[in-house]
Design goal:
Elements lengths: L5 E4 L4 E4 L8 H10 L6 E5 L5 H9 L4 E5 L3 H12 L6 E4 L10 E6 L13 H7 L6 H11 E11 L1 H13 L3 E9 L6 E9 L6 E6 L9 H7 L8
Parallel strand pairs: 3-4, 3-6, 4-5, 6-7, 8-10
Antiparallel strand pairs: 1-2, 7-9, 8-9
């Protein structure tokens, strides 16, 4: 096991994360749990990293088929190791760039790189994982348009500036955001992330706000409900 690699223990599974790739974040866990509410049978995870999202979705949809694509070979190997221990034989991990992958999926999920014009990290693997020049919002929208089945749904996670760019690019491809959830650390704070669900069908956008913590820094009831199936700290 790589030096400095950590183990993130969930209620039903555990994942090695970091070195190579990025460590698991609270926002990514929220995104996985939030995305699990949507029906899926054949799911594609674009930029799967350590396999976090597949692990969370697999817990909620144990009969579904999952495919993860990851451009970094060493990170893809880590994802394969992690997902091989999950109780689902229908999981495949490919070391592919998005443009090199083909197939149709009824559900696509992606937590893409989102730092734009940001000081780059000295670790090249972290650069690819963190910076949008390796997978821009426009490139992701194009990939989803190509790989999503006509009646399928997708979910993406971005900070506000990234979501604006993605939504504009998606609309040009005939994709629409149908539901959006603002994530804030506290109610009085600025928006940290936006979780969006979309499809080829245009309609009225459903909007909600999810607060991580109360003013006293205790976890909010909504956060606890969302992560209770996964986090050991919530009995």
């Amino acid at each position: 096991m790589a030096e400095n690699r950590s183990i993130f223990q969930f209620k039903q599974f555990a994942l090695a994360h970091g070195n190579p790739g990025l460590k698991i974040t609270t926002e990514a866990c929220m995104f996985g749990a939030w995305s699990a509410q949507f029906p899926q049978q054949n799911t594609l995870d674009i930029g799967t990293g350590c396999g976090l999202l597949i692990g969370m979705l697999n817990q909620a949809h144990p009969d579904a088929h999952f495919t993860g694509i990851e451009i970094q070979l060493e990170v893809a190997k880590l994802a394969k190791e992690n997902t091989s221990s999950l109780s689902n034989a229908h999981i495949q991990i490919h070391a592919n760039a998005l443009e090199d992958y083909s197939g149709k999926h009824d559900f696509i999920i992606s937590n893409p790189p989102f730092f734009i014009n940001h000081l780059k990290n000295s670790d090249s693997s972290k650069n690819q994982a963190m910076h949008s020049d390796s997978l821009s919002p426009a490139e992701l929208a194009s990939g989803i348009q190509r790989l999503l089945s006509p009646e399928g749904k997708f979910t993406v996670l971005y900070p506000p500036v990234g979501m604006k760019q993605f939504e504009e690019a998606a609309k040009e491809k005939g994709l629409y955001v149908n539901q959006i959830c603002e994530v804030k650390h506290q109610a009085s704070h600025e928006t940290l992330r936006l979780m969006a669900q979309g499809s080829f069908q245009e309609g009225q956008k459903v909007q909600e706000i999810l607060i991580i913590k109360n003013p006293d820094e205790s976890y909010s009831d909504a956060f606890i409900r969302l992560l209770k199936p996964y986090y050991l700290i919530f009995d």
